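Example complex used in Figure S2.
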Amino acid sequence: MPQTYSELPAGYEFPPGNFRLEKAKVERFLKATGDAGRLYYSDNIAPPNLTAALAMSALSRTIAFPPGTIHASQEMEFFKPVRLDEELTSYARISRTQKRGKIHLIAVEFDVRNQSRQTVLTGRTSFVLPQEESPP
Amino acid sequence: MKLPELKPGLELPPLQKLVAQEQVDLYAEASGDHNPIHLDESFARQTALGGRVAHGMLILAYISELMTASFGRHWLFTGKLDVRFKSAARPGDTIDISGRIIKMEKSGTGAAITCSVLCSNQKHEAIITGEASVALPEDWFVSS
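Predicted assembly (280 residues):
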């Protein structure tokens, strides 16, 4: 059961998440974004934004973001294209938390490594979350 | 596509995308993000957003496409993004994606190019703003 964000302090490290970029996901992503994807099909590689999205979606399996959560900002750096069906592992940690009145700011840093433990991309995501309601 | 001589002020070839709910649904399947704010209209109407919105990361992918179209594989090896999500894109929106070189730092091994990037809707409201940068090797600048 995911924990709520208020239970997680700065420095918290999420459990590593393993995933693989399958051809079907790449095809859906390229269709969703309207990208002809010639570069990806010719080199049998995945779009880096899809790799990042999958790394980030693993967070939602650990932390429960409440309704009204806003994705405020995104930083990413790409180091190496990912080949289809490569085994990947995402590592994420809460780098910053801050409460301002009724809102809660959280920044999460993540990096994704391939099976050779090479870093393929890094990122930093910030969220604005509404204050959790107090229990009755 | 080979760009004309790179220099600050150069506009990258722009893109335009229609964000249909079908695209949002496909993106949810690809990314694993099934937040009902993107998929369930009756749920979304009850939120402050008042209706379904597209994933911010879906719109951000358009910027990667802009950069790949201009700089090819170099974007995949050296690309950096630093953006803010200013407002939500909604199904039915037409998004214009643009970029402009704002800085170019040459070195012995090539050049670091920084672009301001913008995604805006048909009302000219900013959806995403920020910067994207890429490192190009020396042979990029060698005339053929």
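Chain B touches chain A at residues 17-18, 23-24, 26-27, 29-33, 35, 37, 47-48, 56-58, 60-62, 64-65, 68, 72-73, 75-85 (CB under 8 Å). The two ends of chain B are 14 Å apart (CA to CA).
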